[in-house]
Amino acid sequence: MSERIVELSAADLAAKLASGDVSSVDAVNAHFEQIDATEGQAVDSADPHKGTDGLNAFLHRNREEALQVAQDVDQARANGEQLHELAGVPIAVKDLIVTKGQPTTAASRMLEGWMSPYDGTVTKKLRAAKMPILGKTNLDEFAMGSSTEHSAYGPTRNPWDLNRIPGGSGGGSAAAVSAFQAPLALGTDTGGSIRQPAAVTGTVGVKPTYGSVSRYGVIAMASSLDQVGPCSRTVLDSALLHEVVAGHDPQDSTSLNDPVGSFAAAARQGAEDGGLKGLRVGVVKQLTGDGFQTGVQQRFNEAVELLQSAGAEVVEVETPNFEYALGAYYLIMSSEVSSNLAKYDGVRFGLRVVPEGNPTIERVMGASRAAGFGDEVKRRIILGTYALSAGYYDAYYGSAQQVRTLVQRDFNAAFEKVDVLISPTAPTTAFKIGGVDESADPMQMYLNDIATIPTNLAGIPAISLPGGLAPEDGLPVGIQFMAPAREDARVYRAGAGLERLLNEKWGGPVWSSRGDVATTVRDFAAGAALGGK
Amino acid sequence: MSEDVLSFEEAMERFDPVLGFEVHVELNTNTKMFDAAPNTFGDEPNTNITPVSLGLPGVLPVVNGKAVESAIKLGLALNCSIAEKCHFARKNYFYPDTPKNFQTSQYDEPIAFDGQLELELEDGTPFTIEIERAHMEEDAGKLTHVGGATGRIQGAAYSLVDYNRSGVPLIEIVTKPIVGAGSRAPELARVYVAAIREIVKNLGISDARMERGNVRCDANVSLMPKGTTEFGTRSETKNVNSLRAVERAVRFEIQRHAAVLSAGEKIVQETRHWHEDTRSTTSGRPKSDADDYRYFPEPDLVPVVTTEAWIEELRAQLPEPPAQRRKRLKAEWGYSDEEFRDVVNAGVMDEIEQTIATGASPAVARKWWMGEIARLAKQAEVEIVDLPVTPAHVVEVNALIDEGKINDKLAKKVIGFVVEGEGSPSEIVEARGLAVVSDDGALTAAVDDAMAQMPDVVEKIKGGKVQAVGALIGPVMKATRGQADAGRVRQIILEKLGVQG
């Protein structure tokens, strides 16, 4: 019974909660059973920084509060109260989003043990919808990375292969959803941190239009690029969650003033017979071919053919300036990072290291930052500080902003011809933990985001959904749809349409061919205990 | 480096001063610049704060619309152009009074720019100050250094931070270089800062109390040898917090620069600290144009966009400019230059205006405010406006005189009792029985007594020396303890003696 509950989509679980077939308490308990069975044990009980011998998707489990919320929902339902559609459906939250009553660490030593005195706007919205929060998920430190290896609390493992990365930065949220630890999760996407993990874990992830979801209470990485979005196993579920968290927030000046779109309706429409008929789809020439793994390219091509067969009009579009997008992204992102992370100085909150000798404020700040930040965070702070320096500003930050404008123009031109754009989400399937030697070549890691970054630069919405498994390694491949700003509904329509075609083709969701994750974790832990890998 | 000074006169013989001012004005908005925390002075440390004031992880700024309106009004009052669209920028530097370790400010796009301000020096000489820009920013928290002898960071055991002030809205007004003031540069400095203070107070956008740091001046001074036009190296004297100090600091810096340059040495470009006790400045930190604050546009805020209609609406709300108002009032009241200057310097222009508006003549208003009330203020060592006397009180006292209920001498006493908080003039007259004696019966008896005691005087009056009547009025006043109406006494005497007055 419980195994079946955790495999339900959020929409199906919501229906069973509404009909009384399942209680919210049962749902929360079932998910915690799965979490307990898959998270693994601490590698070193004295040192939380070494992670676990299992998935290690959660940095904090919020059992008591989640059960309390579930009880309240069950009680309210018994009393016949009108509840939100997703009331009682559990959710995991990326540990970059502040939550009162639970720690928020950003997966950094800098915020170890820090408790936010306030709730982020999206957190408040989850609470208002009475969705039990299962806990806080792992990520690359301050969301900087594409593998979740840069967490200060050990890497998250990919449920498809525990020796592989779950993508990043939101590897924890994606792995949790993939491994049935939660039907839904919130992530944040600055350059692909929701979509690339979705791609490599065989799940769905959406980066909404910039400003669709409030950033208040989301620990900033790069303010002009960050956006909160949903993670799930189905397109409809992401649409439902997007509707919960979207909307104007007077506390976020960059949030849009538009009414929240009908994303779930768009997803349902796309999945209908003929839902893709006449949809104009542009294949982005610059995001195919060289640099993309053979199996990724193959599944992508098959998806495009499926769309055509379902009546979509497919054309190829050129986006010549995408060539410069990655470089521009790393300058803009790191510049904003260097300023946004200045507040972590040991003075008001978080880690404080007082060095020996005369503890002047400069030395305390320096020692705290040296001890609190990991290498990747330091690398980006240094890069950004340099890019903003007098004499370099125009050459780096200034020209990066110009490239940003050119990328936006490429998108504008493309969207004059097509309704949505399509590309593989990531150039490869999940790579091995430790498989990229960043100290030698950080660019190798950065290239993972080549297909996701342009949408962040342009502020437009994009979805990644499972496109099947790569033949050569049996690992999930992600397909990405992109749409013009404020047209988030389009990515749900196109995504749900393709999802249905693929499910029909493969005879079920991508995870139906995967072995039981709890068993895999048990075997893995036993192997690790024997000294194997 | 030499800290000697040259005499001011000698400095002026050799050099021309160039000034520049950065005046920070703290706005009196209800809330902070980017934050819903209250903007109030003097509360318990770290009580007027929110997660935003503390720069906690995840917080975002939101621009205070009222502060933007204040900035536009000030820009208009300084005859500036108002930007159609302007960004905020981040000024990055690590210091614990700035919770985010950057200050949200404006950099290359100030809300107001290219203005000018017409000033009048004390003797009425006009001087125009060119305004480069006025931009919006947020104040830092307040650091208190504990354990050192001087209250400065050097030698302190530890420092405390109060974030109540962190995020308070500021407008920074920057002048273009000011040349041509010559030996009047120190005076001009004071007059300029006084004018800014007066303007922001008049606009109602700041409490404008310098002692609380509502208006803070950084004064830039450099010298160029007489006859040359190339600016010298400047020093920037920080946070000079009274008008008198501004004048003295500029004067001191001119003398110090002159001594350094005359000795053949170079001025170090640096910030200086003003010390009121020694009336001198000391070296702060070296400052160069290359201080790298890594400014970049604030990505958490959208640009401020102004419309013509909005600006015109705000322009229509502007009060009459202080200088214009002074000219108008002086003409309306008919005061001499000197009389009017005294009124302005005493800070009672508003009081006199209200007194006149409530029904007194300009002469009467001036007589009271610059006379007895000023005397009482001086005696109590307070500003006139700090006394509990209102324009209504003055008008009431004057009406009592006109009605003959009290005389001038009594009126002064009444004002004294008003200051002591005994109530309104009528209440005081009533309660203390101070009304003049105008009962003819009582007066006639007193007059008869006086005439009986001084028959020689009576004869003189009868003989035509009417002015001798004063000798009789004195004793009558004495007999009635000053409460007699002197005019009426004179009338009774003359009537009794059958003499025409």
How would you describe the overall organization of this protein?
The complex is a heterodimer of chains A (533) and B (501). Chain A is of the alpha/beta class and 533 residues long. Chain A folds into two domains: 2-276 and 292-315 and 418-529, Amidase signature (AS) enzymes; 325-401, no CATH class. Chain A has helices at residues 2-7, 10-19, 24-38, 63-78, 121-128, 171-178, 195-201, 235-245, 263-271, 294-309, 325-340, 361-372, 375-387, 394-417, 442-446, 453-458, 488-506, 517-529, and strands spanning 58-61, 91-94, 133-137, 184-188, 204-207, 228-232, 280-284, 313-317, 420-424, 462-469, 476-482. In chain A, helix 9 packs parallel to helix 17 (488-506). Chain B is of the alpha+beta class and 501 residues long. Chain B is 39% helix and 19% strand. Chain B is elongated. The interface between A and B is large, with 44 and 31 residues.
CATH superfamily (homologous) name of the largest domain in chain A = Amidase signature (AS) domain
Number of self-contained structural domains of chain B = 3
What's the assembly state of these chains? heterodimer
Strand share of the residues of chain A? 5-15%
Decide which structural class fits the backbone of chain A: alpha/beta
Please report the two chains with the greatest interface, counting residues with C-beta closer than 8 angstroms to the partner's C-beta: A-B, 44 and 31 residues
H-E string of chain A: HHHEHEHEHEHEEHHEHEHHHHEHHEEHH
Helix/strand class of chain B: alpha+beta
Rg value of chain A: 22 Å
| Overall body shape of chain B | elongated
Mean pLDDT across residues of chain B:
91
Family (chain A): Belongs to the amidase family. GatA subfamily.
Catalytic activity (chain A): L-glutamyl-tRNA(Gln) + L-glutamine + ATP + H2O = L-glutaminyl-tRNA(Gln) + L-glutamate + ADP + phosphate + H(+)
EC number (chain A): 6.3.5.7
Subunit structure (chain A): Heterotrimer of A, B and C subunits.
